[in-house]
Structures are given as structure tokens and as C-alpha cells.
Design goal:
The protein is mostly beta strands and 108 residues long. The chain is 0% helix and 44% strand. InterPro entries: Rieske_2Fe-2S (IPR017941), Rieske_2Fe-2S_sf (IPR036922).
């Protein structure tokens, strides 16, 4: 599926195992792709608190814990669920596709 003006193909679905995180870099975006209970979620990879990479963090259900200062976010909507983080995480809308993880392109 080629990239269109409104959609970005990130990776094949089978690149992300259940309960795992996969880092994707595309254009100027660094993203974390999660697979939980068969559903895909996408957030920015960089923690909002410090230099931690969320794709290197610990996933517990729908909560990602940053490996840097152990702040936690809900990957479904990006809300902070544990300090020291205070700024919510940017999430991306995943679009249905048969074989790939596809998101709506962020608005500038």
C-alpha cells in the first residue's frame, strides 16, 4: 500500500508480536507500534519527560513504562498514568488494513 496524502504505512502487521513494541522511523516521525489483544496502537517513541525511547520500555497491558524514569502512559489515548511524566503522549489513529499497520498522517 503506497503512502497517500492522508495515510502512512508503518510496517507489516506480523512485524509486531502480541504484547510487544516495534520502533518505526518514517519521514521525521519516530514511532512506537504496539500490539495488545490483537489490536494495534501507535504513539510517539520519545517519552514526554526525558530522552527515553518507549519502544525500549516495558509494556503491561495497555500501559507503557518508559525505561528512563519509569513514567507510564496509556497507549490507547496517551494519558499519563504515573509520574514523573506530566505531559500526555501523542497517539496516532490506526486505520484498518489487511496486512500492514497504517496510520492517518498527522496534521501539520
Amino acid at each position: 500500500m503506497p503512502e497517500t496524502e492522508n495515510l502512512i504505512e508503518l510496517c507489516p502487521k506480523d512485524a509486531v508480536e502480541e504484547g510487544c513494541i516495534h520502533k518505526v522511523e518514517t519521514g521525521d516521525l519516530e514511532l512506537a507500534v504496539y500490539r495488545v489483544e490483537g489490536q494495534f496502537y501507535v504513539t510517539n517513541d520519545l517519552c514526554t519527560h526525558g530522552p527515553g525511547s518507549l519502544s525500549e520500555g516495558e509494556l503491561d497491558g495497555h500501559v507503557i513504562e518508559c525505561d528512563f524514569h519509569q513514567g507510564r502512559f496509556d497507549i490507547r489515548d496517551g494519558t499519563v498514568v504515573a509520574p514523573p511524566c506530566i505531559v500526555n503522549l501523542k497517539t496516532y489513529k490506526v486505520v484498518a488494513h489487511d496486512t500492514a499497520v497504517v496510520i492517518e498522517a498527522p496534521e501539520d
